[in-house]
User: What shape does this take?
Amino acid sequence: MSKVYNFSAGPCILPQEVLKEASEAVSNFDDLNLSLIEISHRSKNFVAVMDETVSLVKELLNVPDNYDVVFLQGGASLGFIITAYNLMRENGSAAYLNTGAWANKAQKEAAHFGNVVEVASSKDKNYSYIPKGYEVPSDADYFHCTSNNTIYGTQIKEFPTVDVPLVCDMSSDIFSKPVDVSQFDLIYAGAQKNMGPAGSTLYIIKKDIYGRNGRSIPSYLNLKIHADKDSMFNTPPVFPVYVSMLTLRWLKANGGVEWIQERNEAKAALLYGEIDRNPLFNGVAAKEDRSNMNATFVLANEAHKETFDQMWNDANISGIKGHRSVGGYRASMYNAMDLEGVQALVNVMKELENRV
Amino acid sequence: MSKVYNFSAGPCILPQEVLKEASEAVSNFDDLNLSLIEISHRSKNFVAVMDETVSLVKELLNVPDNYDVVFLQGGASLGFIITAYNLMRENGSAAYLNTGAWANKAQKEAAHFGNVVEVASSKDKNYSYIPKGYEVPSDADYFHCTSNNTIYGTQIKEFPTVDVPLVCDMSSDIFSKPVDVSQFDLIYAGAQKNMGPAGSTLYIIKKDIYGRNGRSIPSYLNLKIHADKDSMFNTPPVFPVYVSMLTLRWLKANGGVEWIQERNEAKAALLYGEIDRNPLFNGVAAKEDRSNMNATFVLANEAHKETFDQMWNDANISGIKGHRSVGGYRASMYNAMDLEGVQALVNVMKELENRV
Assistant: This one.
């Protein structure tokens, strides 16, 4: 069967060797003659999986000792609630940067818990850029931002220096490059981009946030409870955590976040280079804010749509249809996508130019 | 390799054909030449999975039209919070039946949202029986019970008739027998016993509960939002839902909940028969409340422990160590366990009697 170039925005491409090993573990895990998904999460075999996954996160992101790493469920959508519940005081306030649909959802959920201040928004230009030069109120309980906006193809290149605790939803670019964890009080990320399959969510928590807002927090939403129980407060999502471990092992074996940053920058340079060079295409996002994960672009002339769509389909390219709120195309180049895959897309773009 | 008899309390045994098909889908799903876990959850292939899973739940449990079926994440632990948030009024109250550790956790979480009344408890005898003849306050917003208590090996054989909405955590015996859904306003169940792997949680919701308590509920915790979005409000746990679909297909192909009830009763009769017959063993739970899912038993004489433990280990029996709060042994006989597996355990129990 021919290789499919999977540019899906998430759930998305994972390394082939990870998929192979995950498939085998569903049949027979650790030579137990049992499937990974039918053993107790408290068995020594699965406890070892959870421990290694947490260790790999700490090692790859150089997480300082005063941080906990836990895996929960519910995606970033539950993360929005957990963030506010754990960090906003009763009658407190929080500052949010509105860079897209997900950033917007985050602040809407926080409004259930207190006063939300939108410090800046790029909604005026359909979120095609990252606002800068905004002020964060010094009495905010925290400042929340979204590092990468999959739908619009924008990415925060430098996190702001703020006087309040910094919280970031890194769902769509975590592990794509080094990050200075010590800048943040809380990082959370759904696994289903660079880390693993849908169904587990990573939290990196500065320990001194525990109990800070004085709220009585229901257990599943209380980060301290999960940290105290080493992500085993209740049954964890066994398979998603296991595949995350495999993916992080793959990342480490290949050279870690420094290696992947270089590869991701090379892929982005290749694709954005073609978008800028080829008169048939226009980029959507402001150049300085272009995402290395998701490149959004449109045809200069919609008349070429049918031809182009047929061509990339024929080239076994999958998942590049743009989100309905932006239109055009979106090529997601997550960690597991190699340069060859991006080259395959660029070849089709060049071929279109030759053909029309 | 020899077959392992997996009596694990959960995550637990799943049908062999389900594990085989799940393993294949992680390599190549629907002949897409892509893994199940790297395609978009909004692709037609995965939408078909979610639709079929929901349809199978409705068909197998004969769910009336005025109920919604949704799949979320977070297990029963998040279900405890979701239940109270969606059903308890501000300053309202709810009635709970305390039949064990999980029932107890459920009521503790509800206390974050209002007044909790414990109508009865079997804590006095380490939860070895199901209380009966209790009164449920008629002004309670709902009455909550736990259908099966894995740790103690007890099970509610007949649900009480109450004048308030009935809510049940059916995590450990759903799909093990027919259930009259129309009795309940809300049923929830973590998948990781009879339904699939850890990481997805089923909710069966009477539609008229939506908005009933007048609370403003954060989105991920709001059942109506998930129902309106057909369990796709955010990225669902793709793999756990898929494996649940396979397991429910298996159940349907074999004859549904009537068939499995008969098989589960035969397994329970075989094991409890031996526990009662064999002078070396004593059952833990009150006979009338014995669970068909989890049989708890102890050695009459602890001196035989080493011998017995060696014998069942040699017989490839796995996962029968009792929970620390009960001790002894716990044999979980979930749907995928066949009579042969229970017979293997019974044979070892008989063999012990012959040997000592």
